[in-house]
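2024-03-11 09:14:02 INFO queue: dequeued item cAMP-dependent protein kinase, len=373
2024-03-11 09:14:02 INFO validating residues
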Amino acid sequence: MSSSKGYGINKDNMSYKAASTSNATEVRDGYTPQQQQEYSKYLSKLQQEFENRWCKKTNSHTFSDYERVRTLGTGAFGRVILLKHSKTQKFYAMKVLEKEKIMKMRQVDHTLYEKRILEAIRFPFTVSMEFSFKDNSYIYFIMPFVAGGEMFSHLRKMQKFEESLAKFYASQVILALEYLHFCNLIYRDLKPENILIDRNGYLKITDFGFCKVLQGRTWTLCGTPEYLAPELILSKGYGFSVDWWSFGVLLYEMNAGYPPFYANDPMKTYEKIVAGKYRCPSRFNSDLRDIIRNTLQVDISKRFGVMKNGVMDFKNHKWFKGIEWDAILNCKFPPPFIPKFKHPGDTTNFERYTEEPIKPSSYCRFESEFIDF
Ligand SMILES: Nc1ncnc2c1ncn2[C@@H]1O[C@H](COP(=O)(O)OP(=O)(O)OP(=O)(O)O)[C@@H](O)[C@H]1O
Ligand SMILES: [Mg+2]
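2024-03-11 09:14:37 INFO prediction written
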């Protein structure tokens, strides 16, 4: 349903309708300044909704109504487990984080940010949180289950993506970063492991463990070696530019099947990144090379995404010819690939992990440190 201002969201509070765009099925190239201006109004509305949820305290739940199915992924502080609600039979992904590990790795602030951000964001290409709770030893985040698995697994299986598929995914990552930055959030961990494919073939970015509200600049060294931006490695204060650099790495990796900067020793990887030294496979066409060159641009003042035109440099780049941005946003663009998926709790798109018991301690660990969770 459109609002009277001409831009709007429909009943599910998600799909976007621009006032002056032509028929949604008509493919048009690029994005006009008028379209972007209108889209910015919509983003302002989403940003306001983000702010409202950000300031709201939410209620906690417990998980006695859920059945544990199996582990979907593991990480530094815990694991993500598939759950089934016994009454509704609905499936959820539960991220379990161990307070002790978070304390040892001094990640309390990052984890609190992760929780608050997951609670507050709502965008078609990002995961969000249904609810959270904690017990004596763990913190739990309950999210919708994204059944298609990690982009990482599909990329390794296909070796590289067809250009049309890479373009389809890249356009969603651009819209997701545009939304996050509009909400003043810097993501800082873009990589194929953190990008999930939903059953409709569209993406959901997950893992907001390094995401935070940006106030001016920030200095923390975090992320994944191959995806780190030069300004971050050089310990210069940095901002949103690091996400666009990682996007450039992703763009390259989706098309090549391997990342642009790689060495066995992370220090050597950093040297290559700082020097901006990489080579494109000979089959990369000139438009693809051009967009990568402008994104893997060591000089921030020349990097796509952070210059005066912002994301418009991407939206109107020749490589995205054929991408209809509003149709992508509304998931109306036909996905070039849909993951195999047989039934609601199907986990075949995820790797197997050894299961470990979740045993909360008999007394409350780090109560004061986790008071805000
Ligand atoms: N909503 C979800 N649906 C399905 N699988 C998910 C979901 N969220 C996460 N996963 C799976 O679990 C894996 C780990 O999750 P995530 O990236 O959030 O944790 P992590 O990498 O351990 O985090 P951290 O970097 O904070 O240690 C993901 O890569 C993905 O395979
Ligand atoms: Mg992760």
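2024-03-11 09:14:37 INFO annotate: The domain at 150-330 is CATH 1.10.510.10 (Transferase(Phosphotransferase); domain 1).
2024-03-11 09:14:38 INFO item closed
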